[in-house]
């Protein structure tokens, strides 16, 4: 009986790559990012808030993302009532460069791994 | 992206003082970051929690269930606060590593040095695994954070600017702080043999070559894409925060403005052990100026920035973040040590109680024995006293009868005989009366001793009953030790009896 296939886990590097990629598509905020990751991966990947927000903080400190605040008011709120605040993230120019480097590195890495896989398959086919 | 936009939204908002607000209050207190950043993190997490609760309510959960689930998904509160702290701190700590790696990444463009893998001097192909690692900072930082080349000598300004360029960052040098350390833009730096060394070591060498140490040494920070250079003292001043450290259990509880001796010693120890040069006050009790005033402030050096105020069981510490972290660690270590000492004291106390119980049992057994002996002795005396009483009354009867006969006798000879016998009877009566009274006194004395013994036995029995609740007594002493400190009378008495002091 074969072992069941387990859900793949995102490493911190992959999580950063995924988030930077999502932000390249446009500005977003924490909760939306976490839902997008789950939806795009058909629930295969989940980035919990305890992982996501410290990572976003780190990216901001490194200058890879820029941030902006939006005030969210309830419909019933008056003009002077304070709403809650939402933090938006946008990829910075530096973040664009870092993402590009990461994508290229990831593709090269995958390519090297694939070359091993292709080699083993060819050997298997010959045998 | 600097202005705050406003947007109307249908919003299912839970009650105003709800568990989310309570959780955020607790979480914010645990966040060891500057206040403005605390509020930003709090606002962001509140937005997340409220949106999550809205989604869960739509899925059919009750509000309490939804709040509970949303908060639980955030994980353990203290751990989350720590992660935010680490996200900031690691960014700073990794500056040096980033610098090394960016320098390596920019190598092909600007420098004639190979790659950052140790032992290699040959540039690697663009698609080699080594280069891939170079653009994956976490892997590179953790496994390969050392330089593959020597740094050429030159003017300090050029060296720092080159590092910034290689780090793909804007550079700002706080020359004012460096000049206070006696170096400037034109200070010449010799070649640093950095090949194969970690950047921290290279930085040590640079500072050593420039003759800089402690607060005067050069360090760097990188935030928001800006790489800043300055002295340790400069960044210490800029990154200063005030934190309240809970030291309850280490110092006695009392008024919030109390300065206990224990708190003074703790404060003094912190200033002596942790970065002694940053403190601008010393506790003369352990200082060197000989003053007897408990908290006289003594200027140690102009650039000192740290200060400690004692507020009962809290130490309000004004110091750079890196020092606050060391203080937290130090207090945690002290707390572990205190717990070990408390356990030892508890063990001594329990042994002392057990010894006392055994001693009381022996004393009670001896008392029971002595009471039995006394009761036996009293019974024998009472029997003797009964016989004396009997003889005494017979002697009295004889004496009274002889007295009557003597009174009615007429002849001289008869009176003379009766008189002689009467004197003899009176002597016998007096003798028996004396013996009877003496026996009475002896019985009284024995009965008094018996009463004393019974009273002492009752005391021991009472103590024995009390000692059966020994565990509760120990718990109470420990509770007092934690809440009221070692100087509470009951704690002092317990410590005294266990020879702790």
The helix-strand sequence of chain A is HEHHEEH
The oligomeric status of these chains comes to heterodimer
N-to-C span of chain A:
25 Å
Instruction: Summarize the main sheet of chain B.
Output: 3 strands, mixed
The radius of gyration of chain B is 45 Å
Poorly predicted sequence stretches spanning 5 or more consecutive residues of chain B? 1-6, 8-16, 91-145, 282-300
Strand content of chain B: 5-15%
CATH class of the largest domain in chain B: Mainly Alpha
CATH architecture field of chain A: Orthogonal Bundle
- The DSSP helix count of chain B reads 17
What amount of the residues of chain A lies in strands?
15-25%
How much helicity do the residues of chain B have? 55-70%
The two chains with the largest interface, and their residue counts, are: A-B, 46 and 52 residues
Order of strands, main sheet of chain B, comes to 3-6-5
List low-pLDDT spans of chain A: 1-5
Q: Write the H/E string of chain B, N to C.
A: EHHHHHHHHEHEHEHEEHEHEEHHHH
Shape of chain B: elongated
Strand order of the largest sheet of chain A: 1-3-2
Outline type of chain A: elongated
Task: Give the gist of this structure.
The complex is a heterodimer of chains A (127) and B (501). Chain A has 127 residues and is of the alpha+beta class. A 3-stranded antiparallel sheet of chain A has the order 1-3-2.
Tell me what you see in this structure.
The complex is a heterodimer of chains A (127) and B (501). Chain A has 127 residues and is of the alpha+beta class. Chain A has helices at residues 12-24, 30-40, 49-61, 93-126; strands at 28-29, 65-74, 84-91. In chain A, helix 1 crosses helix 4. The radius of gyration of chain A is 20 Å and the shape is elongated. Chain B has 501 residues and is mostly helical. Chain B has a three-stranded mixed β-sheet. The longest helix of chain B is centred in the C-terminal third of the chain and has 88 residues, at 321-408. Chain B starts with a strand and ends with a helix. At the A-B interface, helix 3, strand 2, strand 3 and helix 4 of A face strand 1, helix 2, helix 4 and helix 7 of B.
